[in-house]
Predict the 3D structure of the following.
Amino acid sequence: MDWRVASGTSPTEFRIQQVQRALAQGASIDQVYSLTKIDPWFLIQIQLINERASELSRPGELTKDLIKSAKQLGFSDYQIAKLRNQTEKELRAIRHSFGIRPVYKTVDTCAGEFEAMTPYYYSSYDEENEVLPRMKTAVVILGSGPNRIGQGIEFDYSCVHAAFALKNAGYETIMINCNPETVSTDYDTSDRLYFEPLTLEDVIEVINAETVAGPILGVIAQLGGQTPLGLARGLLEAGIKILGTSPDAIDLAEERGAFGEILKANNLQAPNYGMANSFEEAADIANKISYPVLVRPSYVLGGRGMEIVYDKDSLQGFIEKATAITPNHPVLIDKFLDDAIEIDVDALYDGEELYLAGVMEHIEEAGIHSGDSACVIPPQSIDEGMLRDIFKATEKLARSIGVLGLINIQYAIADNRLYVLEANPRASRTVPFVSKATGVLVAKAAALIAVGKTIAELRSEGRLPEGTVGTSNGIAVKEAVLPWNRFRRIDGKNVDSVLGPEMKSTGEVMGIANDFGSAFAKSQIASFGPLPRSGKIFISLADKDKNQSLESVRALYNLGFELYATEGTGRFLSDHQILSRWVRKHHEGSAGEEKNAVSLIESGEISLVINTPFGRDTRQDGWLIRSAAVSRGISCITTIPGLKAAVSGIKALQGNHIKVKSLQDWTK
């Protein structure tokens, strides 16, 4: 690659790597500066790193001085090992044999004016260690790391509550987290805080330093999301005790073959599935279980790389991308359940007893990532018999996996049958929502179970209510925050606002009321902007959605909205005695002063867009409509369940049913 291309004139999140490669390929400091305007001082530091990498890669003995200088420049064990064609474990053993370990310095929170007592630590390959000795037994909590799509502040919530609960139980708490923009890194959350990356190397070194300082009970890895969970096995192999759910149990849930055996042993159903290590294997599985299929890499955050695939050509493209995302793990292929209801469950298990903290019904259909789907607690369309089945299935899975603490399970209901989609033996992003809706501090209970408390003991102490199932206060709706106007494709155009199996939301909000419509309307006010009380609505429906949407569209018409529709949708509505004005599609152009669908939305005349795509081609056809809605800040509904919920919300708004009540009052 030419160094000019490698350095890149347009800044992206990969720019520092591009600059590093450009300098490695022979570009001078002056040349890269002329393109990027990055201060030469920083470019010189990157050049020094390149020079050390070149030295490390040469044949010959790996000396103590060479390793120490590399560590002082920021090289990880993994990076050095890769340059030397060794394993990370082998390199770490060599480093330890030389006695090269980091020391920890205290962050000077007082700017040198007087002695800082705040126990904030950062690592350095220096000489003097500033970690103070302690007498009390400590518990290490692994935080959630950088906030990003798939792993956000919801996991930080669980870590913070764990720190509070364990401190009250008499333990010292040690938080490891690299993100200063979280509550877990506040000065009063834990007894000690290490600003360190959540990598195996860094966590092992912190625990070594704290083991010297005083007794450690173990490490909690199940509260911060997938990042710390992925470290559990490596920590156990390094001789570090994992509290709560064991790495073996984690692997049982993550490894599809082992999990399939658990489902079979408990007589639980799952969509037909398979695992593939190549395109040929994937194509064979997809043909057997029939398209469409849901395909995803294993061990990923937020459904990264997950897609609904409709044909063989799309499958081949997916396999190529998935191999790049998780090269050492197989691709998972599931039969996609169309028109199913998806259920999210958060539960506590202590090895003997289950407490079902919350059962949430997704408002969107199965196939949309749980982090992007709105959900409601209590469920609105599930009968008592199905709720009993969910409890029994959750209990069986928690026992068979070996959960100690929290478990999140995703189910789908199709044709009145319960299917298990996946189980995550950790805190989920819905734990804060369930806790606020029910008034039960679930993460605190999970932390105490991890250190040996039972559900019966927590109930007797008043930390859990009587009974085995959590009860919500009113009706609570969780809605995802999806800032579509900030997302861009590589070419600079809008990302399509169609929801799918890969998570895109950057946060979530909550609405609580005595009825579903008011709760949903509140959630929309907090996320996208309020639903309209009146005005013009543009509608374009996929053929498969027309019959299902009929009553909702009729309700909007009866509520006084003026309807605009593409010709196919307009004819369907007319056949069912619903009046609408027909609008040309974008590719049909405009006729005189008559606007087409896109220009009508762009003009600001439309207050709500309803556009349901189906399949790959139709999704692409509707992109301009949805992009126009995003650009104008107009709510765009892309699913029939979302449409039905919106109608309920609009009715509540028109009836002035929205009342304000504090969360504290709801939980009294």
User: Anything to note?
Assistant: The chain has 27 helices and 23 strands.
